[in-house]
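Protocol step 4 of 6.
Sequence for MAM domain containing glycosylphosphatidylinositol anchor 2 (Seriola dumerili) entered exactly as in the expression construct, tag removed. Do not edit the line below.
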Amino acid sequence: MTRMLTHFVLFFSSAASPTVRIIHSGHACNVEEERHTERVYTIREGETLELTCLVTGHPRPQIRWTKTAGSVSDRFQDSSVFNETLHIAKILRTQGGRYYCKAENGLGSPAIKSIRVDVYYLDDPVVTVHQSIGEAKEQFYYERTVFLRCVANSNPPVRYSWHRGREVLTQGSDKGVEIYEPFFTQGETKILKLKNLRPQDYANYSCIASVRNVCGIPDRSVIFRLTNKTASPSIKLLVEDPIVVNPGQTVSLVCITTGGEPPPILTWVSSNDSLPQRSVVKGGTLTLPAITSDEAGAYSCVASNNVGNPAKKSTTIVVRALKKGRFWITPDPYHNDDNIQIGREVKISCQVEATPPEELTFSWLKNGRALRSSERMVITQTDPDISPGTTNLDIIDLKFTDFGTYTCVAALKGGGIPEISIDVNISSTTVPPNLTVPRGKSPLVAREGDTVELECLVSGKPKPIILWSRADKEAPMPDGNMQMESYDGVLRIVNVSREMTGSYRCQTSQYNGFNVKPREAVVELIVQYPPTVEPVYMEMRQGLGRPVVMTCRVLRAHPSRVLRFEWLLSNRLLHAGAFDAQRDETEYTIRSLNRDGWGEYTCNVINEAGAGKCTFQVTGKAYAPEFYYDTYSPLWQNRPRVYGFKLQWTQMNPNAVDRIVAYRLGIRQMGLQRWWEQEIPVDGTINKGELMTHNLTELIKPESYEVRLTPITRFGEGDSTIRIVTYSGEFHCSFEEEPICMFTQDKNDDFDWTRHSAATRDTKYTPNTGPSGDRSGSKQGFYMYIETSRPRKEGDQARLVSPFFNVAPKNPYGITNPPAYCFSFFYHMYGKHIGTLNAFLKQKGQTTSEGPVWSLSGNQGDRWKQVKVSIHPTASFQVVLEGIRGPGIEGDIAIDDVTLEEGECRDPPPNLSSTAPSTSSHIWLLCITLVMTLLEGQR
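Step 5 output, C-alpha cells:
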C-alpha cells in the first residue's frame, strides 16, 4: 500500500434505541400479518426454517431468539439463540410455536417482535372397520350394519372423501350409505356407515385425505377391501403362562393367527416399554437368547388388521433368582427381655428374596448336621402372602447344649440356581447391641472440602448393620438415599460441603442382628467454610486524578465471626484490620489515582476456615470503540484497481477514563501478516454516542482487509476492536429496512414516496392499480410507490433522492476520463391514469438537474420491469427518481431493487424504446466529456 488518504469527520447524536423486524429466508408456504403487527409463518414439515432478525440502533443491539413452551420433546425453550438468524433444518411438527426476537442495547426499552411458526403436514390416512356389538351374530357381515372410520393426522385440519370403486360417495347419493362425523371427534374423522349390507356393498373403499394442497402437500389415500369374509383378528399363543426359566436359557415365544380377514399383522410388545436389545422377531416367533433377570416380565402378541379391535394374548416370563439373605434373632418375647438366657425361648428368623417365591425351599443345619422340626426345635415357613421368603426356627426352653452354629439353607425347587446359606451363632456371649458416640467425636468440626468420618461405637454379638440418616430434617444422605448402611459404625463423607452441617442419627438394624428395639445415637457435624464475598473480580477503569472506591462485601461465612481483612496491591500490604461486626463490607479508597495506583488490588477476608478474596483490576485503559453500521455510501474512485470504504464508530463509555487523544488505526490485507498503522488525532472531548468516521482509500480491488481500531489516552492504548472490510463494488437497495438505504424525500417537491408492502397496503379504493407484491412476488416484501389518491392532483411531483456517491478526482482540474456506472431499478406502472416516471443524475455543485437520463409514461401493465442506464458522472453524485401524478387516482407508480454498479451496463432489458429521452442526455454528456478532454490536452 503506497499511501493512505485520511478524512476524519464527527457526527453527533447517533445513539439510538433498538428497533427490530423479522424476515424469512427459508421455504415459507405463506406469511400473513396478524393483529399487533405479529406474523404467521407457514412451513411444510421437513423444510428448512430460517428467520432473520433485522435490527437498528446504536450501540449495536444484542439479539436473542427464544420460543414459547412447546412440546415436551422440543427442547428449544431451554436455550436461546444469540445471533441474527435462527436456522432449523428439517423442521418437525413439534417445533411449531411462537418465536420471539429480542434486541437490546441499553437505550430505552428492548425491542421485541414475534412470529408464529405453523408447521403443516399430512400423514397417510388409516381406515378401521367396526360393527355394532348388538348386531354381531354368527357371520360377521351378513345382513349387518358396518362402520368404516377414516383418520389422518394433519395440520391444517383434513377433509375426507369416500369412494366405492370409482364411485364418489356423498350423503344422500345412496340410501344404504350414510356419511357423518361423530360429535365428539368433529373434524378429526369421517365415518362411512353401511346399513344392512347388500351384495353391491362388498367392494373396494378408498378414503382420500386432503388439506387442499396447502404448502404443496398432495392428497393421501388408503384402500380397504370389504368382503363377506372380512373379520377381526384372532390369535393363539403356543406357550405356557407363566414360563419359568433359568438365567442364560434361550426362550422362544410362538404366536399364530387363527382368524382374520385381511390377514392380520403380528407384533410383539413388552411390559418394559421396549423389547430387549438382543431379541429376535421372525414372523410370529419372538426369541430371547441367554435371558437375564432384567428381561423378565410380560410379553404380548398383538394382531391387527384394522377390523374390530386388535387381538392380544400375553404370557409372563419368570427368571429364577435367589438374592442375598438376612437374619435376625428374637429373644424370649414373653419375658420382655433383650438377653438370651438358659430356660427361655429364642427365635432365629431367616429371609431370602426368591423368584418365583413359590419354588423357594428352606432347610436348617446345626453345626453342619441336618436339623428336623421337634417339640423343642420348631421349624416353620411363614405364609408367602404375609412375609414372603421367610423361615423361623423356635428354640423352646434353651439349654446349654443348644449353643452352636445354626445354618439356614435356601434353594429353588427347579434347580439350576446355587443355594444360599446363612450362619447364625448362638452362645453364652450372644448379647444385644449397644450404641455410643466416642468422646470428642460430637460435635465434629470440619472444613469445607475435607473428608470426615462420623463414628458410632457398636457392641454386641452378632454385630448389627448400622443405618445412618439425617436427624434434624428430612433430607437425603450424601449418596442421594435417605439411609446409608455401615458395617463398622463409621459414616465417611468425602468433600464435605456447607449444606451437610447438621445432626446425623446412627441406628441399629434388626437384620443381621437382634430383633429388639433399635438403639440409636446422634452425632453433630459442623462444617466451616471461608467467607463468600463479592465481587470475585471487577475491572475498574478511571482517569488520573480521580477517586476510586473499592468495596468487598461478605455474603456468608462459618464461623460467621470474621476475624480480619487485608488489602493488597500486587502482594504489597496496604491496609489491614479487624472486621467491623456491625457491617458486612470493607472499603478501600484511592483519593486521587496516579500511575503507581494502576494494578491488581486484592481484599482478603479471613476467618478460621480460610480466606475469601475480592479482586479489583484498576486501570486507565479506554474501552473498546464500537463499529457502526456500514455506510450506504461507498467511496468509489476513478482508478480501475482501487476502492475506498468509510469506517464509522462510536466510543464505549468515553468519559469513564482520561480523554481520548487519538486512535491507532491498523489495517492489513487478508492473508498477509504485515499491519500498516497510523494515528488518527482527536480534537476535543468525545461524547457518548458521538459518531466518528474515517475514510479508507487506496484499497486494492477486490481484496478484503482486516481493520483494527485502538483508542489512546494518557494511560496508553485501550481495548481494540477488529472488523473485516469486504469489497462489494455495488450499491443495492430493496427498501426492506425502515431507513430505506439513506434515500431521502426531496423537500421541494409536492408530495412524498411511500414505503409499503402488498400485505399491508389497502387497495379496496383503487383495486386496478399498483403492484400485488414486491419485485420478487412476495406480499410481505417492501417497495416504494406514489399514492395518487386525493388530495393529489394531476402534475404533482414526488422525488426520492439517493445518498451521495463519491468519485475522487486525480487532479484539481476535474476528471478527464469519467468513470462509468450502471444505474438500474425495477418499476411497476399499472393503471389507466399512470403519469410519468423520470430518473435524473444530480452531480455535486449543480444547482439544478439536467434532463432525465431515463423517462417513461403511461400504463405498462400489471408486471414489474427492469431498466438499466449507464451514467458517467464527473463529480460526487446522487440519483433522483421522480414520479408525476397522472389524470386520475388509478395512477400508482412503484419502484424496487435499486442498484448502482461500477462499469457500463451489460445485457440491458428489452424495453429499450422506453429510454428514448435518455439518448439525448447521453449524447450531451459525451459531448461535454469530449470538450473537457480536448481542453486538458491543450494544457
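Step 6, annotate. The CA atoms of residues 644 and 697 lie 4 Å apart.
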